[in-house]
Amino acid sequence: MAEINHFEYGWITPALSYALSVLGSALGLVCAGRIRTATTGGQRARWGLLAAWALGGTAIWAMHFMAMLGFAVQGTRIRYDVPITAASTAIAVAAVGIGLAIVGTGRLSVVRLLAGGLFTGLGVAAMHYTGMAAMRLDGTLAYDPTRVALSVLIAVVAATVALWLSMTVRRGLAIAASALVMGIAVNGMHFTGMSALSVHVHDRQGELAGTEVSGLLVPIVLAVVFGVVGLVYALLAAPTEDDLAGAAYLDARRSPEHSRPTPEPTPDPVGLRGRTTLGSPGTPFPSRRDTSSR
């Protein structure tokens, strides 16, 4: 068995992977919170896609490959199959998006939460092992079934908690604390799955297909940067709850009930308003007989 090093560059790769998972989790939770306040189906779909990209694309997929920068196997080079790597991205984003759709449509219930967490967790695990299948090296990969099962269980639990937080957490401090916890869960799932791996290096070295991890670094960094900038811009450009409340108030003020002019009071120069006067409805004029008898 070949010696495996998960931290070839020291603490820098796990620190960056954790930072990416926390950043993506925070942005994903904020975007998921906008799903609850959206007023139209189009707005809900838009915020759902942004939340899926933040959680699946940044917090999970980008974190995975940032951690893989520090992965090395003694005695062999490592390359990556680009189409399979791209497929792992699609799996992560789609799994989170479908999970958000399950828990975000209708009233949140335990059944919806468990179903969404199970689907999303299995999707996250599928992303991880699809990304591992994209590796090309002069050796044979083997996995410990017990640790693989443990990593899948961690993924399902972490996904369930993440979906529950995305539907319930709204305040800034709670979002920050939740993102820190989610970062620990995502990284825990990754390194648990990596600990299940063992490699038997071949005696004869051959030509490896695929792209070196350094060649994937620039596209990954650019995708993360533009993705984060786009998410931040979308959040800043979107109206807040106070803006929506103010717009609703102005619409109410423009409604026909409020726009109908209030009738002005008739002038009352001699102060007779409220008194019964001669000639008023219901008050007969005095007859001549009554007048002459006075």
From TrEMBL:
Keywords: Membrane, Transmembrane, Transmembrane helix
Transmembrane region(s): 15-35, 47-72, 84-103, 110-128, 148-166, 173-193, 213-236
Annotated PANTHER family: DOMAIN SIGNALLING PROTEIN, PUTATIVE (AFU_ORTHOLOGUE AFUA_5G11310)-RELATED
Domain of life: Bacteria
Chain intervals for the UniProt region annotation (Disordered): 249-294
Transmembrane found in the keyword field: yes
Domain MHYT: start-end pairs: 9-200
Compositionally biased residues, Basic and acidic residues: 251-261
UniProt cross-references to InterPro entries, sorted A to Z: MHYT_dom (IPR005330)
Protein name (database record): MHYT domain-containing protein
Biological classification of the source: Bacteria, Bacillati, Actinomycetota, Actinomycetes, Micromonosporales
Organism annotation: Micromonospora mangrovi
Coiled coil (UniProt feature): none
